[in-house]
Write a structure and sequence with these properties.
By secondary structure, the protein is mainly α. Helices cover 79% and strands 0% of the residues. The radius of gyration is 22 Å and the shape is rod-shaped.
Amino acid sequence: MSSSDSIKNNSPKKPIFTRFLDGVEYLGNLLPHPITLFAIFCVAILVIQRYLK
């Protein structure tokens, strides 16, 4: 076992809130650019509006 393996095993576990924020950051990074989201939502609203008339 190398010294780097022992360092990894002795590192403290992250608090639950930090792990939650890491998950939020990961999911946020999966989203497209905000302008793209805005355009997608605009088109979706127009399509839904068209079918609800």
